[in-house]
């Protein structure tokens, strides 16, 4: 229902409830169906997981509605602004940061460049490279407003930083990130909304391609571009969990984690947030692996599942944010999704009323928000805090003022104000 209502509104496809509903429809539901058919979920875990899934989606819808209410925005004075005249300089700085990470990873072997689990110096470069989300969004919006030599060069550099992870390594989150940021930029800058038919077709293609990623990567090999004829030979329907019970076992992982938590009655109460923060921001090469491990407060989800039930998740699969939210705070973990949607709602209002810099905050939070469903409930809060730190540093470095440069109201982007 949330998906249908959102798509009926102009530009609604970029709203959080619609994006979450799309992830549910294309990723969660097929795996839940497979789990029901195979009947491999521990007793009582499937019902608990289904109820938790519905609570999380409802929390997103409620959080977005509360966040997009036209009241005083509590984030207005917290996030510094940059004058529209300095957006070009901001784009240069962000692109420069991201380029350092890109070139640093480029010095590694091809197989390391395509990895998603870096160690050593590569982990630091990958963190720096993650700034490309904000730099691409800002550069694209800067280009759409002012087609100059500088804006064109910045956009080309950012496209180049995205290209290898899309063409050679077929990283699903990078493809999704690039498409959503582009759709968002054209919407809020040029007031161009992607036709609904194209959005629906894109959702279908994304759902099929999501479960065929490994096969496509297998075709490409190490740094090779797969041919269209080879991709056409893949049976995408057969790889969907509805037809292939062994595909994408994340929801099965989630059911076993929920069961382990219920049996052990061990709720981490924020411990997973701390673990994710330490894992992402404490470099083992500086403090030592033992010190870093000692900073961890609670077992990782997979460790708890194995210790209680003996279940071993498939290599490379996730535990889902739905299950880790349950591990953190029982059913109250759905509030993590509520606050995420609320924050994104406030950023959406800021994007509609502000200049290019004000719009980049929302762009930076789109994919981390969706990863709360597919990966971990702490992803948005841990990852987005890095964007906040970098963007704040850039804003104060440029001595941006704290007043909106373009207080044109919600209709300044040519879009209808969201309903309360």
TrEMBL record:
Keywords: Membrane, Transmembrane, Transmembrane helix
TM ranges: 12-33, 45-66, 87-106, 118-143, 150-168, 174-194, 329-349, 378-398
Protein's name according to its UniProt entry: Oligosaccharide repeat unit polymerase
Organism: Henriciella algicola
Taxonomy of the source species: Bacteria, Pseudomonadati, Pseudomonadota, Alphaproteobacteria, Hyphomonadales
């Amino acid at each position: 229902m949330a998906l249908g209502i959102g798509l009926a509104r102009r530009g609604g496809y970029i709203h959080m409830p619609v994006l979450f509903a799309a992830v549910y429809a294309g990723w969660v539901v097929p795996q839940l169906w497979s789990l029901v058919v195979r009947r491999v979920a521990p007793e009582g875990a499937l019902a608990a997981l289904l109820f938790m899934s519905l609570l999380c989606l409802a929390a997103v819808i409620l959080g977005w509605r509360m966040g997009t209410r036209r009241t005083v925005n509590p984030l207005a004075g917290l996030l510094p602004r940059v004058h529209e005249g300095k957006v070009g300089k901001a784009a240069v700085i962000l692109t420069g940061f991201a380029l350092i990470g890109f070139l640093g990873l480029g010095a590694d072997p091809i197989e390391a460049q395509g990895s998603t689990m870096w160690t050593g110096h590569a982990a630091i470069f990958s963190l720096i490279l993650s700034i490309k989300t904000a730099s691409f969004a800002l550069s694209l919006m800067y280009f759409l407003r002012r087609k100059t030599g500088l804006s064109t060069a910045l956009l080309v550099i950012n496209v180049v930083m995205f290209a290898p992870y899309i063409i050679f390594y077929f990283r699903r989150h990078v493809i999704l990130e690039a498409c959503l940021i582009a759709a968002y930029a054209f919407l809020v800058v040029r007031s161009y909304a992607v036709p609904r038919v194209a959005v629906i077709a894109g959702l279908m293609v994304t759902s099929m391609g999501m479960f065929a990623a490994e096969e496509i990567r297998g075709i490409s090999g190490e740094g090779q571009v797969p041919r269209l004829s080879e991709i056409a030979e893949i049976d995408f329907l057969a790889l969907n969990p509805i037809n292939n019970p062994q595909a994408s076992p994340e929801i099965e992982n989630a059911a076993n984690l929920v069961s382990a938590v219920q049996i052990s009655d061990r709720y981490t109460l924020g411990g997973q947030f701390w673990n994710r923060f330490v894992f992402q921001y404490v470099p083992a090469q500086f403090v030592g692996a033992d010190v870093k491990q000692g900073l961890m407060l609670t077992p990782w989800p997979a460790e708890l599942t194995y210790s209680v039930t003996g279940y071993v998740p498939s290599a490379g699969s996730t535990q889902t944010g739905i299950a880790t939210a349950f591990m953190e705070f029982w059913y109250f973990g759905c509030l993590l999704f509520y606050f995420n949607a609320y924050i994104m709602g406030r950023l959406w209002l800021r994007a509609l009323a502000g200049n290019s810099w004000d719009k980049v905050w929302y762009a930076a939070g789109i994919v981390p928000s969706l990863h709360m469903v597919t990966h971990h409930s702490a992803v948005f809060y841990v990852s987005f805090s890095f964007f906040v730190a970098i963007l704040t540093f850039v804003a104060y470095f440029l001595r941006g003022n704290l007043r909106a440069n373009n207080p044109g109201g919600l209709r300044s982007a040519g879009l209808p104000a969201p309903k309360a």
